[in-house]
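User: structure tokens for AB hydrolase-1 domain-containing protein, please.
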Amino acid sequence: MQPRVLVPRPMRRSPLNWRRAMPNDDAEQPSAIRRGRGLRLSTEGAADAQAEPSEAAPEQPARRGRGLRLSTEGAADAQAEAEAEAEAPPAFALQRESIKTAYGSMSYLTGGTGTMPLVMLHGWGASARIWTDVAAALAERRKLVLLDLPGSGGTPARVTIPTLTALANEVLDAIDALGLERFELLGHGLGAATAALVAGQLHRRVSRVALLGMGIRSFAPDLLAMGLARLPFDISVGMARPLLNFWQPFNRAFMQSPPMERSMSSALLHDKPVAQQLWQDYLSDLAHADARVYMTWLTMPGEPALHTALSDISVPTLCIAGREDLVVRLAEAKDAYMRVPGSELLVLDKCGHMLMVEQPEALHAALRDFFK
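Assistant: Done. Predicted tokens:
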């Protein structure tokens, strides 16, 4: 039985638009959904009423007043509102914590008021804070764990080569250290591939998986050869790490410079970023990321372990891709989706690789619906 596909159809303004069809069904239909015009406030009526006296009301003779009436109702209401604001729960915030694993320390962000844990894995070049807005959208539904993968954010790079299997083993060890018996997974890019390996191995402990911006290539001998021949690159980067650490402040400023930002935008984004702060955070984290992990991300689509893991996933799975993604082509995203039995595919229009930066509202709505 073929898995169901969620294929978008054009809408006037909303990027989140889908219908259910078979994988080869490319027919599109216009949508009847329109965005509202919002609430319009106006003071014209009050101004007119003040400027033009009513003709219907006859002039009344002057009467003596009943005196001055004092009331404390307004003050009581103001005091009650102030007390309610003081007792209101604080705005959503993530807490930075760290755990010890067999591979070393791992930093992560945590928050949320739900009972079911949701482990979130970022892509290459990013850190856990790329999920900040997504976490706020899901905070009332899940207990959130946003891991910094090795060589990113607050988690130091390891001495060993950060292969895809090695990253999955680290995440497995962190999940056990956190005492999570049953949980859900959300990943983007390299983090999605890592989540797929974890879900394939711990299918009895994982309840559902969302894979964003991830694809595979069924025939990729060039990527497989590159992965097998990466040892000299990993050794060189490992030896140069002290120099790279010294250069990080300058590299961070360079990554956020207008020319470099435009270059990264053309490669990763379809249009200007909507979540501007997330985009700036990503550029800053990219300057700090372990360069060896870039090779893992580059060769990931041809990784045989990933292909096998996708076929082993036996829980509800949602794959989300950007139609204009230049990093993970839509055909590659469909290949990954087709590997997962019973999965669904959502394609966001006018969106490149950084879904949480370009189409945050559409992404949040899709994830809220999936993680009910």
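User: Anything notable?

Assistant: The beta strands are 5-7, 19-21, 95-101, 104-111, 117-121, 143-147, 183-188, 206-212, 317-322, 344-348.
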